[in-house]
Specification:
- By secondary structure, the chain is mainly alpha-helical.
- The protein has helices spanning about 1-15, 25, 30-60, 65-100, 105-110, 120-125, 135-170, 185-200, 215-240.
- It is built from nine helices and no strands.
Length: about 250
């Protein structure tokens, strides 16, 4: 399935880089921006693991609220940096970002617009944040509703965009040479891709609403979030190491 996804990505990419005859797409090489993104994302994951360890240690050793807040702010900025990295990657190759080929297979199960639904983060985090005050519960409930409404609007808009993109690509299929740089068909299709980039960029940073929580709760939530993704990565590693005949 992963090979099929990669082949489809290259084929789709080729449609928008010269009538489907793009040397780099056929050779399987990636855009330089994507190569840079993969390196930066690997470094991002390593740094995230370090920050989770620091936060966990600070929670266990009862660091002062001031010291904990510094670690929380650093971790939240780290998530914001990932959003910027993904935005740059989307400009280089939005198909690649949305395919999730830069993530492990377990993480791709939950992929949505190149990330994870913000409302899913809330479901993961809420059990780890008890006790919450009544005001916090109201704020979290309001945030959950706004996330779900925004996700629904984005999903509906994305589906309409996919339909328009498919219709654009399917125009005059029997006429040769329509998809070439500068052609009306190419311009129309690339306009749709610009809109696709906009959809990806609207997915919110999962750590952006940490101010609803106390410093202690925010630290606990960030540890839980980091541990969750580390477990998914570990699951993928364990699965891939199993002999094929034991997966049946």
């Amino acid at each position: 399935m992963e090979h099929d996804l990669e082949r489809l990505r290259l084929q789709l990419q080729g449609l928008f880089t010269g009538g489907g005859i793009d040397h780099h797409s056929h050779s399987g090489s990636l855009h330089s921006g994507i190569v840079a993104f993969e390196m930066q994302y690997g470094q991002w994951v390593e740094e995230q693991m370090k920050q989770v360890s620091q936060l966990r240690n600070a929670l266990n050793t009862c660091k002062s609220d001031y010291e904990l807040r510094i670690l929380v702010d650093t971790s939240m900025k780290h998530y914001n940096d990932l959003s910027l990295l993904k935005a740059a990657a989307a400009k280089a190759d939005v198909f690649y970002l949305m395919s999730g080929m830069w993530k492990t297979s377990s993480e791709r199960v939950f992929l949505w617009l190149g990330g994870v639904r913000p409302s899913e983060f809330l479901k993961i985090l809420l059990p780890q944040l008890d006790p919450l005050t009544e005001l916090q519960l109201m704020d979290v409930w309001s945030l959950k509703q706004s996330c779900e409404m925004a996700e629904e609007a984005l999903s509906q808009g994305l589906e309409k965009l996919r339909q328009r993109l498919a219709e654009s690509v399917a125009e005059n299929l029997l006429e040769e040479g329509n998809y070439r740089p500068g052609s009306p068909e190419m311009t129309n299709a690339t306009d749709k891709l610009e809109a696709l980039n906009c959809f990806v960029s609207q997915v919110r940073n999962p750590a952006a609403n940490g101010r609803i929580l106390t410093t202690q709760q925010a630290a606990s939530g960030l540890v839980a979030l980091g541990e969750y993704f580390q477990r998914l990565r570990t699951l993928s590693s364990c699965w891939s190491s199993l002999p094929l005949d034991s997966r049946l």
